[in-house]
Amino acid sequence: MKANSKSIEQYLDFANQYGAALTAAPAPIAALRAVAVKAIEDALDQGVAETETIEPSKLDEFFGPDYGINLERRHLSAPNLAAAFHCGVPKLNSALAVVCDDFFIPAKGMEARLPEGVILMSLARAAAEMPEFVEKYLGRLAGCTTPLRQRFNAPAQRPDVATALNTLLMQDGVLLYVPAGTRVESPVQIVNLAASAVPMLNPRRVLIVAEERAEVRVLLCDHTQEGAAPCLNIEVIEVFAAEDSHVELYDIEESNATSNRYWQLYARQADRAHLTVGSCYLHGGRTRNEYRIDAAGNHTETALYGLGICADGQSLDNQVLLRHAGQHGSSRQLFKNALYGDARGAFGGKIIVEEGAAYTDAVQTNRNLLASADARMNAAPQLEIYCDEVKCGHGATTGQLDERAVFYMQTRGIPREEAKRMLTQAFMVDVIDNISFEVLRQRLHALVDARLSGRSGNCDTCASACAKDPEVI
User: 257 and 280 in contact (C-beta within 8 Å)?
Assistant: First the structure.
């Protein structure tokens, strides 16, 4: 199947019409524009391929609407982000930064929580002040000219359109750099907040570079401010995990139903690098998450965890491509979803074990719970193994709650709906318990319980006073 090319062409036409404003960005960012344009043009010439799921998330559904783009870099809202935003995970004692629509806003005291040498700053500012560093990393994993599937030895060789659009339209983002041998004790929290009163496309970019023996935890939180208009957040994250580094990246989405998200993670692991990625979808509109992990080194450890709770009108699509190229690598994937009403879910997972990647140990698991007759879930776990000396497994199941367990709990005096909520929470518990970050793990248990009880912790009910000017440092 092919997407309607007009949904993509409108952004290419926009870039051609307003190219002067886009090329005013710092050189390392502006230099990628031509590459992105060429990738999009090639994709249009070849026919824009749909996503690779049984029931695909159509590109038109994301990119078809005519969203605005904030070329003039105007602050379209004035929330008290830096001083008062607490998200749904309090008491983290984190180094906090906020990306409001696509503006980077550091919180007061952010730098004081970071060890010497650690950099957490606006990507545009970094590109202007340290261009050689940014040029070395930006776009190297999320490249437009060398498609990921081509690098991963798969047949489809088309440019990734969503990545190319993000590269074409990005004007700011976040840079996190952790120098060699540095352990960041406080978690780094990046709050992405959609706050524009007019429909907006927000191209966000996050670049994380962890050098040898570095250790860092990153928490990404997506929220929508009350009164915000419908939006599309396209986010690309690049993670470089050098030798013996430990990177943990957790993502929580609690947006409103008019916020759509196309989220892409590109990561590369060197020898003995540890990478943990946890994703939690609690509330939102249409979401697609893509994980593109290149375990290139020897003795790498990779862990991917995801949970989703989808209600009427919501959809969640998780796609994983994990490549083992080094020897003695291990990976664990566990994704669980609970779908209510007419919610839609999809999971596509592919593990590729390259020739020479001996002694790889990889497991991929997807479990899904359908809480209504109208909910739908499609799962397609896959293995591609080009090496004999490996231990790999994969599986997917989709079903409903055990009525015998519900009845048993009812006989013990627990109301039926409460019993179903408790069983669903128990179904999710092993995903949350795999999170080593204790404060976040405890808070996620509470957030999942609140979501299953019909409550939400998004910005419509947030206690933060989102009425003052942001405190920028």
Answer: no
Cβ neighbours for 280, distance < 8 A, ≥ 6 positions apart: 250, 251, 252, 253, 306, 307, 308, 444, 447, 448
Distance CA 452, CA 434 (A): 20
Burial of 195 (0-12, 13-18, 19+ CB in 10 A): buried
Chain centre distance of CA 299: 25
Residue written as token pair 């993502």: 251
d(CA 435, CA 223): 21
Q: What is the CA radius of gyration of the chain?
A: 21
Task: Find tokens 């990306």 and name the residue.
Answer: 99
Tell me the C-alpha distance between 209 and 268, whole Å.
10
Residue 438 neighbours by CB under 8 Å, 6+ apart: none
Longest CA span, the chain:
70
Q: Pick left, alpha or beta for residue 171 (phi over 0 → left; psi -120 to 50 → alpha; otherwise beta).
A: alpha
Q: Following DSSP, what letter does each residue of 81-117 receive, concatenated?
A: HHHH--TT--S---EEEEEETTEEEEPTTTGGGS-TT
Q: Round to whole Å and give the CA distance between 320 and 332.
A: 12
At 237, list the tokens.
Answer: 């994250």
Q: Note the pTM of the prediction, 2 decimals.
A: 0.90
Query: What is the pLDDT tens value at each position of the chain, 473 positions in all?
Result: 344 567 778 888 877 777 666 667 788 988 888 888 888 887 777 665 544 443 445 777 888 888 888 776 766 554 445 444 445 555 567 888 888 888 888 887 888 889 999 999 999 999 999 999 999 999 999 976 544 444 444 434 456 888 999 999 888 899 999 999 999 999 999 999 888 888 989 999 999 999 999 999 999 999 988 778 899 999 999 999 999 999 999 999 999 899 999 999 999 999 999 999 999 999 999 999 999 999 999 999 999 999 999 998 899 999 999 999 999 999 999 999 999 999 999 999 999 999 999 999 999 999 999 999 999 999 999 999 999 899 999 999 999 999 999 999 999 999 999 999 999 999 999 999 988 888 889 889 989 988 888 765 444 444 333 333 333 32
Give residues with Cβ within 8 angstroms of 91, minimum separation 6. 439
Cross-strand pairs, 9: none
Query: Are 402 and 423 a contacting pair, CB within 8 Å?
Result: yes
